[in-house]
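Changelog-adjacent note: as of this version, every example in the card shows the full chain rather than a window. The one below runs 166 residues end to end.
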Amino acid sequence: MGNKITTATGRNVNPLDLRPEDIDIRDIAHSLSLTCRFNGHCRVFYSVAEHSVLVSKLCPPKFAFEALMHDAAEAYLGDVPTPLKRQWPEYKEAEDRAHAVIAQHFGLPAEISEVVHDADGEAFGIEEIRLLVPPGQPGDITPLRGLSPEAARQEFVDRFYELYVG
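Full-length structure tokens:
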């Protein structure tokens, strides 16, 4: 197989050289629903798929689809915590390339809009308080629901078909 990974739908793709024909929403939804945010260091399992749906709901409708897809490259490259991304320029370049291919495939801008970045930051603030504060510590409140991977995948797919006009 060399430099390729096998996706949930059976495609063999090179994550460092994605092509538009490699992209399948089923692969994206499946992978993101099984990828835990914060490198797994949260109070409950909370997937990148669930995070993406939240970001899409925090954005104005015009940006909701772009927001839903803002982390789609992680379906092919994995979710690397932001502090590591800052120290790993090769990963960031690979992520930007993968995002550009996914964006082209779905008719989205190649660069993520500032509005989406802002909503992603707002989501982080919500998630930080509700997922990362240890129980019994100041600021401890009920965690986010933490959907099962199956439910998160379905929520992501439903939101995709609600928003996608391609």
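Structural remarks: Helices lie at 25-33, 48-58, 64-68, 74-77, 82-87, 89-106, 114-132, 149-163.
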